[in-house]
Specification:
Elements (H helix, E strand, L loop, with lengths): L5 E6 L2 H9 L8 E4 L8 E4 L1 H4 L9 H7 L4 E4 L2 H18 L1 E7 L2 E5 L7 H18 L6 E6 L2 H8 L7 E4 L21 H9 L5 H6 L2 H8 L2 H10 L13 E7 L7 H21 L2 E14 L2 E12 L2 H19 L3 E14 L18 H16 L20
Parallel strand pairs: 2-4, 7-8
Antiparallel strand pairs: 1-6, 1-7, 2-3, 5-6, 9-12, 10-11, 10-12
Helix pairs in contact: 4-5, 9-10, 11-12
Length: about 400
């Protein structure tokens, strides 16, 4: 049998399971996790007890309750889920080589030596499950996938839920996936599926037989070749990712959909994004504002380019200028969502000097130094201790907990 190189772990109904672990009375009950407080909006997660009643993620709360009248709702607490993610990662790292934390509920573990065999890898999975049960609690469970590379391990991890364990390698490919729809594979989105169908590829066995060079042409990208080679069992390393910018977005609650309140929320988002920019040692020269208007119905987005900066006041001024442009061109009355993005980023250490600014090479300006002081105060005494004038906090899915 070909050796296994990767173990993919997918936590089962993670958000709902964390709430059940925190609140034992919820265990065994149908639980839905909402993005906002109250009985409005959609579910962002559901427990397996709720899924057994037909409840699905992204379903409206009204439809979910119609299917499952006993559904118990809890607002999402993303910070709590991140803390659980960190605890789980620490436990995994004690028992195995934790290669990568793929997301808040997905982990990739490198296999080798005795764990490269099916028996050895299976025993490792049992040890990890026992460790989570003993050190965190019984509600936190996962499905596991073993593979000869990270892609096959990830696909295998999705085959049996909850609490499953499956494996994929050249020894059982492609017949193990013969009945799986092509677009169930990670990376086969609607656009790629159309291209594959146009090339006569309608199922996984046909994709598996494809010449990787042909896949590059179908995808119009080297990613197509990488994908097919991985599907065929080659150990293709994951490419390094590079950050393209810093941003935040928010779907507004009804009380914040006025122009005034939406603008104040956008100022809060700018403060959050620029603090992260400074934390990582970057500057940005492009600011973009995205707005989805309810009345009149309209999607609006504009960008401004200026000099490289990490000064919050600088980006707040750009934000204000774009809001004026929005108001003059669209005349909005009600706003559903807003987003801000700091793009065209550059490490502070690489920023050139500019005589007319004045701007010294690789050094913070006096206003940027002030921003750093404010960051330190907020880190020590709590976020929002010092702000840059008026803003309106809007805690939601990624902020609560």
């Amino acid at each position: 049998m070909h050796p296994f190189r990767s173990l993919y772990i997918d936590m089962n109904s993670f958000f709902a399971s964390v709430e059940q672990q925190e609140e034992p009375a919820l265990r065994g009950q149908p639980v839905g996790i909402t993005a906002m407080e109250g009985n409005v909006g959609c579910l962002v997660a559901a427990s397996y007890e709720a899924k057994a009643k037909g409840v699905k993620t992204t379903m409206s709360i009204r439809d979910a309750k119609a299917l499952c009248p006993g559904l118990i709702l809890r607002p999402s607490r993303h910070r709590l889920y991140v803390r659980y993610n960190q605890r789980i990662a620490q436990i995994f790292d004690q028992y195995a080589e934790l290669e990568r934390v793929r997301s808040v509920d997905e982990f990739q573990i490198a296999l080798g030596g005795s764990t490269a065999t099916l028996d050895g890898a299976t025993q490792l999975v049992h040890r990890l499950r026992a460790a989570l049960r003993n050190e965190i609690g019984p509600a936190i469970r996962f499905s596991a996938g073993l593979g000869s590379n990270h892609l096959l391990a990830k696909i295998a991890g999705k085959l049996e839920k909850p609490n499953g364990l499956q494996w994929l390698s050249p020894d059982n490919m492609p017949h193990r996936l013969a009945q799986v729809p092509l677009d169930d594979l990670p990376g086969i989105a609607r656009g790629v599926l159309r291209k594959l169908n146009a090339a006569g590829i309608y199922d996984i066995p046909a994709l598996h037989r494809l010449d990787p060079r042909h896949a590059r042409k179908i995808w119009n990208s080297v990613e197509g070749e990488r994908f097919v080679r991985s599907l065929q069992g080659e150990n293709i390393p994951l490419p390094k990712t590079t950050r393209g910018g810093y941003g935040n977005s928010k779907i507004l609650t009804p009380e914040n959909r006025s122009v005034k309140n939406a603008y104040l929320v956008s100022r809060w988002l700018v403060e959050k994004a620029t603090a992260r920019l400074r934390r990582d040692g970057y500057t940005a020269r492009e600011f973009t504002l995205f707005v989805r208007v309810i009345a009149p119905k309209y999607r609006w987005g504009r960008s401004i380019r200026a000099h490289y900066s990490q000064d919050t006041q600088h980006f707040l001024a750009l934000n204000r200028a774009l809001w004026r442009d929005l108001y003059d061109t669209v005349h909005p009355r009600r706003i559903l969502s807003i987003g801000v993005h700091l793009g065209a980023i550059l490490p502070l250490a690489d920023r050139n000097a500019e005589m007319l600014m004045p701007l010294d090479m690789a050094k913070r300006t006096s206003r940027e130094q002030l921003c750093t002081v404010i960051d330190h105060i907020n880190q020590r005494y709590g976020q929002g201790t010092v702000t840059y004038g008026l803003h309106k906090t809007h805690y939601g899915f990624f902020d609560r907990g």
